[in-house]
């Protein structure tokens, strides 16, 4: 069973939250984070716990703060999260971003979801520089004469929609127009996608933009407050935490990136990505001493990318699994193929676990749970962990079986299905559930025991 880093400290109190958020607005919008990662020494820090399922911050505490921003990650660290999840890409210098097509994230434009990841500060040939100055901005296919990794974090929040979407702020539109950046169309995984791609922006231009909450039904008060962050800035947040906090970066659409972006010496996106992790001390197999000091899981939907990376680092990797209707982006294998016993037996040589969409583990019909599949049991029989995604507090994401109570959902997945980690938008809720139901918090005869409080105050504590 993987670990959750709950620590012994409690989360932020309700009264302190507004002050914290205000300070984050100021700090994250104004404080230069370079050079990174931080060299600050915290002495002896609380370790990552290995006694219960991992609390994985899905793009930070994005149920409350615009996702993949420094504020979103700092807040969830205060909520005792174990692992910070993000998405890695490239831009014009070179950096790519993610976009949403229906319910699927793809690498591409600065439209429907957010931005960022690895940023390469490149020295282009005179021809490329001239093209950039003239705003011709040829997409991808750029040969780099030399490159320096400034690094930029994954898909760190930012525009979340197209030019015509109400989610995009007028300020963002004005900035993009002032930069004379035009919409382009790319073939991404067989889908012609039109929008604003990060490959058409420089890092300096990207830093002019501000993040907006993606979901209209979530708190909008922090819109326009935070810039995107680089991968090194993301790493620094984890390394600067007062206790050990791991990172869980996803290599986003590596096949697409490697088709269009060429590095000197035949290097691939994966080579550059792993090189950066090693540069800042991320190494070691699962639960090894180096890993426990700087926990890391590398995730991807592309199995060939994970196999390639396994030859570069022994750090643990997670194979992400999409909906049953969506084949793998690189090998074009069906859901049924990649969840077969034969495939699990093959992939276990390269990964320590799988990360399926939760509705493929327990099918849903008319918003009611159906009979659970045996995927978790079979994965465990192959010594693979299971980290499903994504858990959210809002009613529209809670199946009727859970009676609009996210704690009931956590109880079901942890205690009945038996998963080893959970990607959640509300890390505080998951932490509270685990604290209140932990064997270490059992009733000792006190009327205010955790188990009683869980039921007495469940409604009052639905949203952290």
Automatic annotation (TrEMBL):
Q: Which domain of life is it from?
A: Eukaryota
TM ranges? 12-34
Keywords carried by this UniProt record: Glycerol metabolism, Glycoprotein, Hydrolase, Membrane, Signal, Transmembrane, Transmembrane helix
The enzyme's main class, written as a single word, is hydrolase
Does the record bear Acyltransferase in its keywords?
no
Positions of the GP-PDE domain: 127-434
Enzyme Commission numbers on file: 3.1.4.46
The UniProt entry's GO CC annotations, sorted and at most eight, read: vacuole
Q: Name one GO biological process term.
A: lipid metabolic process
Coiled coil location: none
GO molecular function, one example?
Answer: glycerophosphodiester phosphodiesterase activity
Q: Which reaction does it catalyse?
A: a sn-glycero-3-phosphodiester + H2O = an alcohol + sn-glycerol 3-phosphate + H(+)
Q: Does the keyword Hydrolase apply?
A: yes
Similarity-based family: Belongs to the glycerophosphoryl diester phosphodiesterase family.
Per its record, how is this protein called by name?
Answer: glycerophosphodiester phosphodiesterase
Q: Which InterPro entries match?
A: GP_PDE_dom, PLC-like_Pdiesterase_TIM-brl
């Amino acid at each position: 069973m993987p670990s959750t880093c709950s620590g012994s400290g409690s989360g932020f109190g309700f009264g302190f939250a507004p002050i914290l958020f205000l300070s984050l607005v100021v700090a994250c919008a104004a404080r230069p984070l370079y050079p990174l990662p931080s060299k600050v020494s915290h002495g002896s820090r609380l370790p990552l716990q290995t006694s219960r399922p991992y609390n994985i911050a899905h793009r930070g505490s994005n149920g409350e703060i615009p996702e993949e921003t420094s504020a979103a990650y700092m807040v969830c660290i205060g909520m005792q999260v174990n692992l910070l999840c993000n998405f890695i890409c490239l831009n014009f210098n070179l950096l790519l971003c993610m976009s949403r097509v229906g319910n699927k994230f793809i690498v591409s434009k600065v439209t429907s979801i957010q931005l960022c990841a690895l940023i390469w500060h490149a020295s282009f040939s005179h021809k490329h520089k001239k093209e950039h100055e003239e705003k011709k901005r040829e997409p991808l296919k750029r040969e780099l004469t030399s490159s320096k990794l400034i690094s930029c974090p994954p898909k760190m929040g930012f525009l979340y929609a197209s030019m015509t979407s109400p989610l995009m702020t007028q300020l963002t539109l004005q900035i993009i127009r002032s930069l004379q950046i035009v919409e382009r169309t790319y073939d991404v995984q067989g889908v012609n996608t039109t929008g604003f791609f990060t490959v058409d922006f420089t890092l300096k231009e990207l830093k002019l933009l501000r993040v907006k909450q993606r979901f209209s039904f979530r708190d909008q008060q922090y819109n326009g407050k935070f810039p995107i962050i680089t991968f090194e800035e993301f790493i620094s947040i984890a390394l600067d935490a007062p206790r050990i906090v791991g990172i869980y970066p996803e290599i986003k659409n590596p096949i697409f990136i490697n088709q269009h972006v060429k590095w000197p010496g035949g290097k691939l996106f994966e080579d550059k990505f792993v090189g950066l992790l090693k540069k800042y001390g991320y190494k070691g197999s699962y639960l090894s001493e180096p890993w426990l000091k700087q926990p890391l899981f590398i995730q991807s939907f592309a199995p060939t990318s994970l196999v390639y990376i396994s030859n570069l680092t022994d750090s643990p990797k997670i194979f992400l699994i999409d909906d049953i209707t969506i084949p793998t982006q690189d090998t074009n294998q069906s859901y049924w193929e990649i969840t077969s016993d034969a495939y699990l037996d093959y992939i276990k040589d390269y990964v320590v676990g799988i990360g399926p969409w939760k509705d493929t583990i327990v099918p849903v019909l008319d918003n009611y749970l159906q009979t659970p599949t045996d995927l978790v049991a079979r994965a465990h029989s192959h010594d693979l962990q299971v980290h499903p995604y994504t858990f959210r507090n809002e009613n529209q994401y809670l199946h009727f079986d859970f009676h609009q109570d996210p704690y009931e959902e956590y109880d079901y997945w942890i205690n009945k299905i038996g998963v080893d980690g959970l990607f959640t938008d509300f890390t505080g809720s998951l932490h509270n559930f685990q604290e209140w139901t932990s064997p270490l918090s059992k009733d000792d005869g006190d009327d205010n025991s955790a188990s009683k409080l869980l039921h007495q105050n469940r409604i009052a504590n639905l949203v952290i």
